[in-house]
């Protein structure tokens, strides 16, 4: 899970104005924002250095709350099934690693996920100095093995987990490769609205944005604060 994409160096507002020119018919029939969202202020940056916990914490939080520019997402943490993952993710949240970062990838066909947790917004960023850690709580390979509301780790292969994770907003089938560590209890409606608005990529030939089923969210999603308790 995870693709290499360009950094969020282009102002989203400018990109979307261009999108109206590039695809006027599509733009006229599709929304380009989610009502109630505010303007993001985050900037892509090099992932911070955070001390990595190497053993499972004795006391684990039960919930993670993500405050975004579009509203709140609350996750119930599967502490008994993914204690190592939750130990690592909690350490990052407490260190404010996720604060003021973008969710950099949205998929809207076949897979229905919003991917977050990379401060560089490139799809390749993870905590500086971390070498990756093992998977936990892997599902069987079957239809809809990552149902709507699932929160799972993104990775680049076995044992490469870091800080990137994805939020599933519609039932999705993937390989049995991604640690499931939480369940969304609030905010799934928001994610579905983001999915309806869709995603875009910048074409390398003309440097203009185009609709795609796998790219940056057209409605920018900024994680303003991530906390655990």
Description:
- The chain has 229 residues and is of the alpha+beta class.
- It contains 4 helices and 12 strands.
- It has a 12-stranded antiparallel beta sheet.
- β4 (105-107) and β5 form a beta hairpin.
- The longest helix has 12 residues, at 83-94.
- The protein is globular, with a radius of gyration of 17 Å.
- The relative contact order is 0.26.
- The model is unreliable at 1-25 (pLDDT under 50).
- InterPro entries: Cyclophilin-like_dom_sf (IPR029000), Cyclophilin-type_PPIase_dom (IPR002130), Cyclophilin_A-like (IPR044666).
- Pfam families: Pro_isomerase.
- One of its GO terms (molecular function) is peptidyl-prolyl cis-trans isomerase activity.
Main attributes?
229 residues, alpha+beta, Cyclophilin, 12-stranded antiparallel β-sheet, 4 helices, 12 strands, 17% helix, disordered N terminus, peptidyl-prolyl cis-trans isomerase activity, Cyclophilin_A-like
Compute the gyration radius: what is it? Answer: 17 Å
Based on helices, strands and strand pairing, what is the structural class? alpha+beta
Q: How are helices and strands ordered from N to C?
A: HHEEHEEEEEEHEEEE
Percent range for β-strand residues? 15-25%
The strands making up the biggest β-sheet line up spatially as: 3-12-1-2-8-6-7-5-4-11-9-10
Summarize the structure.
The chain is an alpha+beta fold and 229 residues long.
Q: What's the helix and strand layout?
A:
Layout (H helix, E strand, L loop, with lengths): L11 H11 L1 H6 L33 E6 L2 E7 L5 H12 L6 E2 L2 E3 L5 E4 L33 E4 L11 E4 L11 E7 L1 H10 L1 E4 L6 E4 L1 E4 L4 E7 L1
Antiparallel strand pairs: 1-2, 1-12, 2-8, 3-12, 4-5, 4-11, 5-7, 6-7, 6-8, 9-10, 9-11
Pfam families: Pro_isomerase
GO molecular function: peptidyl-prolyl cis-trans isomerase activity
């Amino acid at each position: 899970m995870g693709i290499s994409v360009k950094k969020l160096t282009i102002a989203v507002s400018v990109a979307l104005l261009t999108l109206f020119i590039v695809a006027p018919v599509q733009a006229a029939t599709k929304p380009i924002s989610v009502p109630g969202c505010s303007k993001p202020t985050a900037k892509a940056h090099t992932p911070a250095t955070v001390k990595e916990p190497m053993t499972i914490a004795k006391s684990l939080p039960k919930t993670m709350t993500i405050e975004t520019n579009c509203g709140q997402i609350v996750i119930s943490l599967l502490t008994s099934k993914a204690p190592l993952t939750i130990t690592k993710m909690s350490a990052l949240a407490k260190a404010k690693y996720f604060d003021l970062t973008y969710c950099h990838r949205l998929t809207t066909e076949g897979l229905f996920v919003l991917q977050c947790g990379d401060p560089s917004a490139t799809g390749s960023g993870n905590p500086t100095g971390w070498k990756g850690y093992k998977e936990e709580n892997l599902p069987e390979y079957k239809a809809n093995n990552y149902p709507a509301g699932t929160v799972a780790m993104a990775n680049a292969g076995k044992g490469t987990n870091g800080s990137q994770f994805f939020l599933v907003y519609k039932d999705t089938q993937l390989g049995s490769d991604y640690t499931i560590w939480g369940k969304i209890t609030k905010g799934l409606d928001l994610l579905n609205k983001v999915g309806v608005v869709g995603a875009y990529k910048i074409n390398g030939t003309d440097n203009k944005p185009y609709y795609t089923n796998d790219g940056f969210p057209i409605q920018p999603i900024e994680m303003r604060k991530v906390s655990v308790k």
